[in-house]
Amino acid sequence: MKGWGYDFGYRPGSGGEGPILMGTGPTGLIDAREVSVAVKVPHQPEPLMVVDKVSFLVQPGVSYAVLGRSGAGKTSLLSVLGLLNADYTGKLMVDGVDAASLSDRALARLRAGALGFVFQSYSLIPHLNALNNVLVPCAAAGLRRSVAVKQAKQALADVGLGDRLGAMPVQLSGGEQQRVAIARALVNHPRVVLADEPTGALDIDTGASVMGLLIERVKKAGIALVVVTHDRQVASMCDMHYIMDRGGLIQDTSPQVWQRPRRAATAEEVGVA
Ligand SMILES: Nc1ncnc2c1ncn2[C@@H]1O[C@H](COP(=O)(O)OP(=O)(O)OP(=O)(O)O)[C@@H](O)[C@H]1O
Ligand SMILES: [Mg+2]
Question: Would 92 be classed as within a structural domain?
Fold first, then answer.
């Protein structure tokens, strides 16, 4: 497409369509009903249910933490919710639209316009500078370049990197790269951000400040957040808590578990003083 002038392999969806405008669906932003993902395992007669009849409602402006041990199916669930894996059973509505009814192209546009992603490994494109990395989803969503550049600069300024537009990923620290990834996730003003262990590659202090920034940005913009994490401190910053185990998802409504201090209880606290 003419006018972008960036060689990042993505181009705006097509001429003249403009960005996707989302209405507020009656069923929540993401409404998964008994969604399952089965994978075939060699030498096993039955498929493995990596996501097993999960029902999950994502409401506007609410943050959700999903915890669970390695292999529990967290990334697999996020892939389905994020329209990255269409190989599921059950019903998945995104902003009132049945995802199964959409073509690949419509899915890609919905994904780029309505959803933002943050991954553990930043997944910035190494040969693009910070600004051009943040522009990638704008192109996929069909935004005009002039609008996209304005939004991308603002998104980078919002994460404190307004003066690093030209920096290449290799010139940025891990925390800075993850801030670029957050700017990229937020640049299109998505309705939902899906984050898969966004602090997993960072040291504790940097992770906490990056997570604090992500929560602050999504709260400020009224965006919903689904964050997969191993870190209870990270989870404690979220409104609702879920645990995934062997493909199943259950809500944890015992907030004291998430607010437990990171130290051994004193003898007094456990009642043996
Ligand atoms: N395409 C696939 N083929 C075979 N097995 C798969 C496939 N995708 C996922 N799995 C298996 O499904 C299970 C869940 O994987 P998933 O990556 O979703 O776990 P996770 O909870 O994100 O783990 P981690 O915390 O280590 O990232 C694992 O046992 C994994 O090996
Ligand atoms: Mg995972």
Answer: no
